[in-house]
């Protein structure tokens, strides 16, 4: 799989969040916290499931990965790009 660039992933995440929250979020960008986009920690988990489906990966969440409502869209995007780029968690 070709690794999408970070900006593409951020744009995809914003679109997924817009659909999930039914909010246009016109001012959202990579620095937007998922909490400010209207997501709570449960919504973040649902977002991760949607991202996994979109990119055909498994997002590895462990004690060293802190995804909270304070996580920014860019931080989440970087995690996704890193996992795609490294082949970590890729579905076979």
Task: Describe what you observe in this structure.
By secondary structure, this protein is mainly alpha-helical. It has a single domain (6-22, 31-86), classed as Non-ribosomal Peptide Synthetase Peptidyl Carrier Protein, Chain A (Orthogonal Bundle). Helices cover 49% and strands 0% of the residues. The protein contains 3 helices and no strands. It has helices at 6-21, 41-55, 73-86. The longest helix has 16 residues, at 6-21. It is globular and about 30 Å long. The mean pLDDT is 80.
Q: What is the structural class?
A: mainly alpha
Taking the sheet with the most strands, its summary is: none
- How would you state the average pLDDT, rounded? 80
Q: With helices defined by DSSP (H or I, 4 residues minimum), what is the helix count?
A: 3
- Rg, rounded, reads 12 Å
CATH architecture level-2 label: Orthogonal Bundle
